[in-house]
């Protein structure tokens, strides 16, 4: 008989011992926004944007679809916490307690081994940002968003919240008012970055909100892979993550955006991600969502140019007490565009996984091709899974395919594997690994291993 698999989760469940330089009072008002903008030394246009966003936020209601967020009291959320650590380009200069937190997550080691650059955010501010010197010589810009606003104001203004306007939804307006941290990445025409860049977001305080903003601009013929990691300690008080990602893929460029989300189970994850792709450009989303109590996340791609391509691959895990409302949106605006959506969800221990997707092919998008595949696996009879794909096709000159599968793990499968010496936990983990393998293989090796470990950990905790 094989020994029962035991996984140590201390790497992901720890409370960083980091001092705070400033902690805003709970809630959000004009005075706080003006104080933060002044402290960040922002130009007048950014302050104006924040105040306009606050006005929209106060006027709009919460989304009327998706997860139940009635447990989220925005008046109690601390919207800005500045850690007692200056931004550095060297790990040696980062305060010891901050470095210890990111060391546990393996970030410095990852940078040394296989990354072109790293940004590390603690609470509301970037504390470390660095990129290989050869990329800087090629004209690549990789900065925290605050530095980009000050050093490249015209470039940032051209793209900031142009894909996701403040009127998109209430939490877009909230983000526009109180955003802090995040990454600005600009890849010049023809530059192909060989190794990924990564940003890691860590929340260390209970009852806080994190609102980082990421912009990626890939100019004509460029290529880049960007990895996003997220985690937070477990607390008994609700945390909020309402970040935003905007990606601009120019003619013939290729962008791959990978996310491993492992927020703690007290977190509401209400993130917005959107990309627009010009002629012959390519956008790929790959995501693994395992953490948070409630998630609403629907990465969107707008195929604007002829021959533009999009691919979205996702794994969503819903364990005890989790409601994961995720999906993908693709809008075809031009001829000969193509998209592939592959969404897989696993639910266990009473968790609820909900796929909510949109595929729209406009009348101008003739000769376009699109495929949507949703597959859900329930590991017990207490869990739930739903799929609501919306498909709108305005032309009869398009090729569209859709497939949805929902099923439970068969007792015969578990029995067979247990008869071969596996525990119930190991048997379920093996079946899940096979189920998600088509998505996991798209991740760099080190991150594929990480995602499999996280899935094993969640299954172990759910089975007990």
Assembly annotation: single chain
Mean pLDDT: 91
Largest sheet: 14 strands, mixed
Task: Tell the overall outline.
Answer: globular
Compute the number of helices: 11
Overall tally of structural domains: 1
Give the proportion of residues in helices.
Answer: 25-40%
| CA radius of gyration | 22 Å
Question: What can you see in these coordinates?
Answer:
Strands 5, 6, 8, 9, 11, 12, 14, 15, 17, 18, 20, 21, 23 and 25 form a 14-stranded mixed beta sheet that branches. Strands 4-3-7-10-13-16-19-22-24-26 form a 10-stranded mixed beta sheet. Strands 1-2 form a two-stranded antiparallel sheet. It has one domain. It is α/β, with parallel strands linked by helices and 464 residues long. Strand 3 and strand 4 form a beta hairpin.
Summarize it.
By secondary structure, the chain is of the alpha/beta class. The protein has helices spanning 30-39, 44-59, 96-104, 107-114, 133-137, 145-151, 153-159, 170-178, 411-419, 424-440, 445-463, and strands at residues 20-23, 81-83, 117-122, 125-131, 141-144, 183-187, 197-202, 209-210, 213-218, 223-231, 239-241, 244-249, 254-262, 267-270, 272-277, 282-289, 294-297, 300-303, 309-318, 323-326, 329-332, 338-347, 352-361, 368-378, 384-393, 398-408. The longest helix has 19 residues, at 445-463.
